[in-house]
Specification:
Chains A, B: It comes from Halobacillus dabanensis. The structure is a homodimer. The first copy, chain A, is of the alpha/beta class. Chain A is built from 16 helices and 14 strands. Chain A has 3 domains: 139 residues, 3-Layer(aba) Sandwich (Rossmann fold), CATH 3.40.50.1980; 202 residues, Nitrogenase molybdenum iron protein domain (Rossmann fold); 34 residues, no CATH class. The termini of chain A are far apart. Chains A and B meet through helix 4, strand 3, helix 9, strand 13 and helix 14 of A and helix 4, strand 3, helix 9, strand 13 and helix 14 of B.
Chain lengths: 424, 424
């Protein structure tokens, strides 16, 4: 992992994978077919892309039970405890409707309503991601979303991973469908004979999934398009190099395009972390991926002063930030942009991936400047409420009409003035 | 305005203007040029599209003062009162950071931070829209956004409307630039020598502005792409036809593609509103636009029962909804999807456009199913905060490591396990 002086640092921004023109066309074609032909198209694409020939798309009760029995009881308990922690955290995020009443009889307010239906995409591949199920479904459930529809690609035998089914089962999600890729996003956006249409789609996926989400955006809502995982560690000389290195590598193993950055004002720490990364790297099962990631997107940024180090973090606006200093809470107010902030030596980043409670769906690639972790508000929407009293309208009708006329909108002025008939 | 029985009603959804392939290419070219050449490109496009040859892009102090003097004092007071009402409403929307501490020493929380810089697009054209300035700028100011940058296209003489400058002046916005179209969006997204880059762009515009916002989305945040204005009125036999008709027409005058819909279970009301619309329409200065809108997108939906009428409203998910019944508050809990809900006969829709306080930037074209009025939260973002104690990590490290290994992520497991050294 290279050490770079802050003064030599260029932009850390990575380009987002927008897909090729051909990939975009493929995705548009898939969406059009699913819109038109429903289940028939979904099954054909599943056979073509996932090599699975399915009679039924929906996961059966028997399959849920089998998944439950296949994993040992101790692990089931760990999953349940994680779900409990995640639910407890998200319950604190709930917003409430409010009203404000004036003496003239006017009531103004904001009503919060859950969306009707949410769709969750759970990626397939070699590993099963029960944590993805929890992190996407729980905020929707806490928000009060009644209908939750999950999709995940099957393997060649038409099966989906036990861990995913178990996680869905623990949360009481019954609408799980064996479909992935752009065809899954199309099915969620427009519905088929079997798969219900939803109002918002969340969850990560490959480039086809990301392109399909961009295509259907507007007809339904989507979460942010996720980029590769990132960690930045802000540490001073009190940090332990072995721990910092281990945490940097925990993100590097995700993806060859993941980014791991240490920002420090301590040259001794910079050097010992560099050594530790090298030695720990070789002993990792996913060493090839992690090595590539460290070489291409890993670095140690050495700053002249602590303030410069803090500024560097705000420039990066990292997905995950660890603050490892004598008194990390003192730094919290200075951190303006980060998806999740882990304070102190025991708050190793994986604590937040699975267990502590906060969401692991976080803004990547500098979008923490303007985006938030997935949260309960993402599954609700607001309506303004306006109840004007007769008194309020009498007091203000002429002002409102004048304002409307200045903007050239005569019918607006007349609409409020019509009410004058009532007190003539 | 046609009367349709609910049972004969097809979907009310209108297609969103996605622009032509040529328009998209033009917009991409403009963005690339502004990115590369900054102010030079901005001025060239302004000369080409707006016919204005500008030396300086920024509005001067003198121009603000001139705008202030050009409008009479009484109108200035109306604007100030509107700004006060809008500020008061949005101040109630403020979310606060929170923390939760456990007995084992763990602290979990959610930190709210304003975005650094917001950009507001104010459309040009024949009318000046000071209300647009208020509705986009005030939520950002209340959120605590330090840098607010406004752009608006100049006329051929290089001037921008007095009403817009006055509104900006009242709010203390000094960064106002004479630029519109896709070139304005590109300048806000990437910055030029003169125009500062921002993190989020809001405000309505023509198809080029909308396409440019879609293009830069991801590099910066944007608000929703707005469609034509809509009103739905849910009324029973107690409503006055003249008032309902006037309110329907207040939206119809906006745009030939605006939509005005009455939903009722009262046939006498349906018929008298139909007559009133006809007679009021002919007397409007913008009668041509309103007539086209009423013909193409206006209708009266006659329902068999009141429940069916309420369901119809939730299917439409209108931008503006008026509820005109004996006891409109009783209906509030049944309304699931609407941008703004106006209750009772005195809450004519224009009351909310300018004066009452809630925002007039609202979700259109059925997106109230999943979107909200522009609000203070749109200009802030959340960061999760996780401070795990040694005790908490000791209690949970083995569970977290096991969860990580089930997902195939060994470096995640080792990262937390490294901390065991501390209590060995």
């Amino acid at each position: 992992m290279k050490i770079i002086n802050k003064s030599d640092l260029k932009s850390l921004k990575r380009s987002v994978d927008q897909g090729t023109e051909e990939q975009r066309k493929t995705v548009q074609e898939i969406i059009a077919q699913v819109k038109q032909q429903g289940d028939k198209a979904v099954k054909e694409y599943t056979e073509r892309f996932d090599k699975a020939k399915l009679d039924a798309l929906k996961v059966t009760k028997g399959e849920f039970e089998q998944a439950y029995d296949s994993l040992d009881g101790e692990f089931v308990e760990i999953l349940k405890e994680a779900a409990k922690n995640i639910t407890a955290f998200h319950e604190k995020q709930r917003s409430t409707s409010w009203f404000d009443s004036s003496e003239d009889g006017t009531i103004l307010g904001q009503k919060i309503t859950p969306i009707d239906a949410a769709g969750v995409y759970v990626p397939g591949g070699t590993a099963a991601y029960p944590s993805s199920v929890f992190m996407n479904v729980i905020p929707a459930q806490v928000a009060g979303v009644k209908k939750i529809v999950m999709v995940t690609p099957p393997d060649e035998d038409g099966n989906v991973p036990d861990g995913v089914l178990l996680a869905a089962h623990i949360l009481g999600v019954e609408d799980v469908y064996k479909v992935g890729g752009a065809q899954a996003i199309a099915a969620l956006a427009y519905g088929t004979e079997t798969i219900p249409a939803v109002d918002k789609i969340t969850g990560p996926g490959n480039v086809f999934v990301a392109l399909a989400k961009r295509e259907v955006f507007g007809d339904v809502d989507i979460d942010m398009i996720a980029g590769p995982s990132e960690i930045a560690v802000l540490a001073d000389e009190t940090a332990r190099a072995s721990e910092i290195a281990a945490d940097l590598l925990s993100q590097a193993e995700h993806d060859a395009r993941s980014s791991s950055v240490l920002v420090t004002n301590s040259e001794p720490l910079a050097q010992s972390v560099q050594k530790e990364v090298q030695s720990q790297l070789d002993r990792l099962p996913r060493a090839d991926i992690a090595r590539q990631s460290v070489e291409d997107y890993g670095m140690i940024v050495l700053c002249e002063t602590w303030d410069e180090a803090v500024d560097t973090i705000n420039e990066i606006a990292p997905e995950h930030l660890e603050v490892v200093t004598e008194d990390p809470f003192q730094e919290l107010g200075k951190i303006k942009h980060a998806g999740a902030i882990f304070l102190g030596p025991y708050s190793s980043e994986p604590v937040g991936d699975y267990f502590a409670g906060p969401n692991h769906v976080l803004p990547t690639n500098g979008t923490a400047r303007f985006s938030s972790p997935l949260n309960v508000d993402d599954f609700t929407k607001k309506s303004s409420v306006i109840s004007y009293s007769r008194q309020a309208l009498e007091n203000n009708v002429d002002k409102i009409a004048r304002f409307a006329r200045l903007e050239g909108l005569e019918a607006h002025a007349r609409a409020v003035e019509t009410r004058k008939e009532r007190w003539k």
